[in-house]
Amino acid sequence: MKGLRCGTSNCEHNECERCMAGIIDIGPNGVCKTKIKRDGGELSQIFANYEAAPEADLLDNVDTVVQCAADCIFNVNSLCGLEAINVEDGLVKTKCMTRKKS
Question: At 48, is the secondary structure helix, strand, or coil?
Answer without folding.
Answer: helix
